[in-house]
Specification:
Elements: H1 2-29, E1 35-37, H2 40-66, H3 71-102, E2 105-110, E3 115-120, E4 123-125, E5 132-140, E6 152-157, E7 162-166, H4 173-178, E8 184-189
Parallel strand pairs: 5-8
Antiparallel strand pairs: 1-2, 2-3, 3-4, 5-6, 6-7
Helix pairs in contact: 2-3
Length: 194
């Protein structure tokens, strides 16, 4: 089993490092993006530390398969597993919820051109900046946890509709700064559940 897991882990680290290097080079020499969608690489960026903590938990599964002999081994295994899942599980739940909300959403955002458009699938969500009654910006209160990068913007329109944009699309701070004159309410929470 070890002969299989070690090369797979090394391959995953090499592919991840190569992809981050490629993204850095593309950002350095490429054009600034104005169209944002949920992408695999944005998901990897947000889930890097939760998945790393789960990889740390993988060696703990071996004693479970062999079967701990003493009750203190069961207790130690349970405490370690609960700690690791406590770090990773909230991020995974937020990622799943945000992905369900924005998997078909496309955000067209260019502050220099004063453009903000949202599409659900191929259909545009019709609104203009004056149509926005208020903007709710959900941020994580604790900055040192794995799920602190999961944020959302909820645009409340005058006709009662709500447009929800999550951090799976892009970093939301520039968009919140763009919408700062439309009664922006920042809500700090421990867990930014929609």
């Amino acid at each position: 089993m070890r002969r299989v897991l070690v090369p797979l882990l090394q391959l995953a680290v090499a592919v991840g490092a190569a992809s981050f290097l490629l993204q850095w080079v593309l950002r350095l020499f490429g054009r600034r993006r104005t169209v944002f969608q949920v992408t695999y690489w944005r998901g990897v960026q947000l889930l890097l530390w939760p998945l790393a903590s789960l990889c740390v938990a993988l060696p703990l599964l071996r004693p479970l398969l062999v079967g701990p002999q003493q009750p203190w081994e069961w207790g130690l295994f349970g405490v370690l597993l609960a700690g690791l899942l406590g770090f990773a599980l909230p991020s995974l739940l937020l990622h799943w919820q945000y992905y369900r909300r924005n998997r078909h959403t496309t955000l067209l955002f260019d502050p220099k051109q004063n453009i903000l458009e949202v599409y659900e699938g191929a259909e545009p969500v019709p609104f203009q900046r004056p149509d926005i009654r208020r903007v709710e910006y959900g941020q994580c209160r604790a900055r040192g946890v794995f799920w602190s990068n999961y944020e959302y913007l909820r645009l409340h329109l005058h006709d009662g509709r709500r447009v929800e944009l999550t951090s799976l699309l892009t970093n939301l701070q520039p968009l919140a700064g763009f919408l700062r004159h439309t009664s922006l309410e920042t809500r700090r929470r421990w867990f930014c559940w929609l």
